[in-house]
Amino acid sequence: MKSDFLIALTQLAAERHLPREQVLQAIEVALASAFKKDNPASGQNISVKLNPNTGEVNVYALKMVVDEVEDPEREITVTDAQVIKKNASLGDEVAAEEPLPHNASRIAAQTAKQVVLQRLREAERELLYQEFLQHEGDIVSGVIDQPENGRAVMVELGRAQAILPFEEQVPTERYRKGQRTKVFVISVRNSPKGPEILVSRSHRNMLKRLFEIEVPEVYNGVVEIKAIARDAGFRSKVAVNATQQGIDPVGSCIGVRGNRIQSIVNELQGEKIDVVAWDKDPKVFISKALSPSEVVEVEFADDGQTATVVVPDRQLSLAIGKEGQNARLAARLTGYRLDIKGMTEWEQVREERLRQQALAQKEEAVAEIAEESGVEAETPVAELATEIEPATEDAPAQTVAEPEAEAQETSAPTAEVAESLDEDQLLEALIREEEESPVADGAGEESAGLSVEELQSFTLDDVGPLEDDEEDEEDALPELPELPDLAALAPDAGKIRFAEDLIEDVRGGRTGRRGRRGGGARGGARGGR
């Protein structure tokens, strides 16, 4: 039959979630403290042994094992100690053979109670610390207790309470009191008030643990997660690799009809997840990391940490992503600084690079020529290039200048001939020629009716040499200089033109009273005919 003490001991251990032996040890320590306080004059070190079955309490005095005993109440020799305890040695404490008489008072009982409660609380905190220390780096389920916008959120984890800092929260999530959620345990620290548990919802390892929970291949190690880049609440990229041949790592993570990846997305409240295949070739890995954009070319810089990625112009915005999100996640996933360029920009950069290379080669060639010819090394390379090819730069200027000089020489005599012509003399010569021609004797009507073709084809070249008229010697005209081809000089060669118009064009459009008078003279001549 169990004693009442044993029943109470078992019940207390069950309520505190502590082992019964640990509770019994706490009670023994509490009773020892009570007996010391009840007999402070004795100054002895007291130990209490408690029988859980009967509830009997035995109090013993602890003595130190020494070579020579100076205080018999506190010290004991090695020989006497080995009688009580066979393995006793110098410096050990052994209990006396006979228990001490004890009679606990009310004050001693109250002290024992306080010590028991304190010991139980310490044991409980230590047990909680050890329990959650095992869950560090794992996912636990909890209930939101005290949500506050812009501040830390308290999460109940059963017998302990965790802290969800504002920095570890997801910006797109809203937490409500009583809401059950999964959190990732970042760290567990022991403190006088109990274990301090720090949890997170935005940590990238939370995504890794969710893959291990939902995908058996990842949990078993058949599919290995190489890298994770996460923008909590918006988008994440996961690089996976198969450790066994014949296994599709991406398909294993996605599942049939996407059921595996959909479970993870639902737990993260709609966060988009891109699963890409890892590759040991950095160029191939970068091309896959920038999915869904196509990559044309990948070129690495000399530092080995920067990569220039060329994509089609139509997919440049897709490769960069909204606010640079796709490029930023790809850079985190691959570990390279990515410089994304379109095809048009890349061609311009490549042409500029080729031009710089050609210029460098030219400078090297000029330097070699300078060394062979014995030119001083202090002379700049640009001056050497100018000295070597001076004629090439001057040739186009000479070629252009020659036609201009010829044009000026050709136009000069034409202007002189045009200036030498007298308008009145030409008109009088034309009138006299018409009067003396055979057509004027009886065919005045026919001459008045000249066709358009005849008028159009009429030029000053048709004017023949003037005959000397002995009767009109006073009206004789001086000999005219040779006339140029006015039809070639006229810009409107296909239209009906009169002589005065032709002369006006040749002389630069100068008209005046003489032109009008000439027109009147011609009209009078025609009227006379």
Walk me through what this model shows.
- The chain is α/β, with parallel strands linked by helices and 529 residues long.
- It has 4 domains: 4-125, N Utilization Substance Protein A, Chain:P, domain 4, CATH 3.30.1480; 131-267, Nucleic acid-binding proteins (OB fold (Dihydrolipoamide Acetyltransferase, E2P)), CATH 2.40.50; 280-388, 2-Layer Sandwich (GMP Synthetase, Chain A, domain 3); 418-528, no CATH class.
- It is 47% helix and 17% strand.
- It is built from 21 helices and 15 strands.
- The chain has helices at residues 4-16, 20-38, 78-84, 106-133, 204-214, 216-220, 249-254, 259-267, 282-289, 316-320, 325-334, 343-373, 381-388, 390-420, 423-436, 439-442, 444-448, 452-457, 486-489, 499-506, 513-528; strands spanning 45-50, 57-66, 75-77, 93-95, 139-146, 153-156, 161-164, 180-189, 196-200, 223-231, 235-242, 272-277, 297-300, 306-311, 337-342.
- A 5-stranded mixed beta barrel has the order 5-6-7-9-8.
- Strand 13 and strand 14 form a beta hairpin.
- The longest helix has 31 residues, at 343-373.
- It is elongated and about 180 Å long.
- The N and C termini lie far apart (169 Å).
- The model is unreliable at 381-421, 438-453, 462-478 and 509-529 (pLDDT under 50).
Core attributes:
OB fold (Dihydrolipoamide Acetyltransferase, E2P), 15 strands, elongated, four-stranded mixed sheet, alpha/beta, single chain, 4 domains, 529 residues
Chain-wise SSE layout:
Layout (H helix, E strand, L loop, with lengths): L3 H13 L3 H19 L6 E6 L6 E10 L8 E3 H7 L8 E3 L10 H28 L5 E8 L6 E4 L4 E4 L15 E10 L6 E5 L3 H11 L1 H5 L2 E9 L3 E8 L6 H6 L4 H9 L4 E6 L4 H8 L7 E4 L5 E6 L4 H5 L4 H10 L2 E6 H31 L7 H8 L1 H31 L2 H14 L2 H4 L1 H5 L3 H6 L28 H4 L9 H8 L6 H16 L1
Parallel strand pairs: 2-3, 7-9, 11-12, 14-15
Antiparallel strand pairs: 1-2, 2-4, 5-6, 5-8, 6-7, 8-9, 10-11, 13-14
Helix pairs in contact: 1-2, 2-4, 5-8, 9-11, 12-13, 15-21
